[in-house]
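Title: Prediction job returns without error message
Component: structure pipeline
Severity: low
Priority: P3
Assignee: unassigned

Description:
Job completed but the reporter wants confirmation the result is attached to the right record. Sequence as submitted:
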Amino acid sequence: MTTPPADGHALLAVLREPGSYAAWSVTGRDGLLRLARRHGLLGTLAERLVADGLWEALPRREREILTGSRRVAAENARLLTWEVGRIRRAFFGSGIPVTLLKGCAYHLAALPMARGRMAADVDILVDWEDLPLVEKLLGQHGWRHVKVDPYDQLYYRQWMHELPPMRHWERGREVDIHHTILPRTSRLKPKARDLLQASVAARPDDPGIRVLAPTDMLLHAMTHLFYDSDFEGQLRNLVDIDALLRHFASQPGFWEGLWSRAEGLDLALPCHYGLRYCARLMETPIPAYLLARSNRGAPPAPVAMVMDRLVPRGLVPAALGNPPALASRLAGWLLYVRSHWLRMPLGLLFGHLLRKSRKRIRGHVWDRRAV
């Protein structure tokens, strides 16, 4: 019998149950490894195979591939830690802590799911009133703005939830300075100050480096995926949410506090989506009462039906080498439109997309002339 190609659903199944990896043929495992690499999950897969005691049973070639991904991820974590130390040095004496977000926060807090995970940039959250000082301090220590186009500067500063990204002139590492977790034009309005006040030390012996509280860290991950993205290439973020839910589930009162915190931060809708699709796509063990309670944050029934069809098609990739089906391409386009519609009012969105389209067309014309 022919083995089906390894698609995103197969990869998620292996991440849930690493022991099932051995049941795949050599060709199937090759597909899984290539798909995992494409979606930033190769190091994660390697660490889960190690944790499950399956490492020694792997063929030598596969161990070499996975060993490379583990070493790259370990070096990435070392460089991230160094960069956070440089940011902390820049902030020295200002009274502003380094509050980390996303992958960098997972690494500095030494969460188990951070092993094998790559993070490209350092994301920090600061109070709105501290933005001018933070920008000045980073500029004095070698960080420069990446986007210098006047419109891009205006776009970030007037409408977005972060300043234009800054890159260190020598090390090349970027830092994204957030003052909240959703664009200022978004319909949802979580208060960044509430997140900052509830933040905790990344490590007990170092109060100057902080991360969001467990519920807030999870809600930010859910919001980033289900309210602030178009789902394309975002499979790793679903895996992150699943891992965070499983890790924090052992903390007393976590499940009870999650939904009340989501409502308090105006993040009930992304929390509903996060719980719903983790349960469906990752088989995350979520208490039934919480899933029922989260339905209070569900969209109207017609919207929910549409999302149930779009999200799996737009989020979970097809096997490499197989062109996406028409339904998947349509789902991806609709989710792309949704992501922009949620970020901006219609009039502002139309003008922004028109400007970016013109810029893309001009760039294409100049590329053709260069040839």
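Comment from assignee: result matches the submitted record. Residues 39 and 269 are 26 Å apart (CA to CA).
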